[in-house]
Amino acid sequence: MSYLVCHMEKYKRQEVSPVEEENERDETYQASNPQIDSSRTHLNYHLILPRKSYMEIINERLSELELKRKIRSDAILMNSFIVTSDGEFFKRLNPWEIDEFFRDCVKFFSDKYGEENMISAVVHRDETTPHMHLNFIPINEGRLSSKSLFDRQKLAQLQTELHENIGRKWGLQRGKEGSQTKHLSTAEFKAKKIIEGAEQRERKIDEQTEKKRAELDDLTQIVQVVEDAKNKPIPKKRKDAEKEIVSLRTTNAEQARQLQIVGKDRDYIFSLLKQKEQEAERYKRSAEILIKLKEFAPDELTQLQRLATERKEQKTKPSTSSNNSKWTK
Fold this sequence. Notes:
The protein has 329 residues and is of the alpha+beta class. Helices cover 57% and strands 12% of the residues. The chain has helices at 13-23, 54-63, 87-91, 95-113, 146-149, 152-167, 186-230, 238-296, 298-316, and strands spanning 5-12, 45-48, 76-84, 118-124, 131-136, 139-140, 143-144. Helix 8 (238-296) packs across helix 9 (298-316). The longest helix is centred in the last third of the chain and has 59 residues, at 238-296. 16% of the residues are buried.
């Protein structure tokens, strides 16, 4: 899940111009940041175009205020937000959606801190991840006061409001509460985001590697089972080898015997079936002859039946002779 990232930075008078130079860069800008690709700088664009230099805009706005005291030389004159997310979030969006996302952010900050206090909002597309620099003058209740706008409690509240107004709409997680309490320079913040991006890519690579390793382990186990069955090691000792051979021969002989029995059973059943079919055919023919005899020669059939009965009785009657008897009175 991607997070909505919002980093805030504070700038004094002498720091404003260098920030302007970096934010408003063109192709001739000599970048000290290795993440800047000057061949893509022409893709950068403004959502709030500064009408003058940053300091001129600041001085004009401050002149409109009825300040009771002189502005200190070390006063914070400009606050800047870097708004972004991770690369995965922007990959899901087309260019028009990316533009709408940043416009939503500009509207949120303009409504919260005053459109009249906005200096510039520029989207950078010439670095690793698209992001927006939004610069404004920290005026609160008619006075210049970055401190009153961005204490710890108000920064936490800002994160909550940003999530409710922007994060939910774009499906982004809320930033971790209190993450703004540690002050980071813009360079440190960008370095931190680069490291986090690299760590995220490393985690994904590790997850993919682990998944492939698990798949490979499954395949390896399958191959091993096949190899074990096919190439079972031959015992080194002759006695063990002989036992192995005897075991294999016994197994093969038993399998052959079982196949032979099955074959014989099959042949016997087939032979028995044919025999019964032949007997049935003979009985059928005999029955047909009897029917014809009964119909056309009933007397002859009766005589034949009587002769058959007499012959059967003679075969079953025991033969006796008085001359050959072993018993005497």
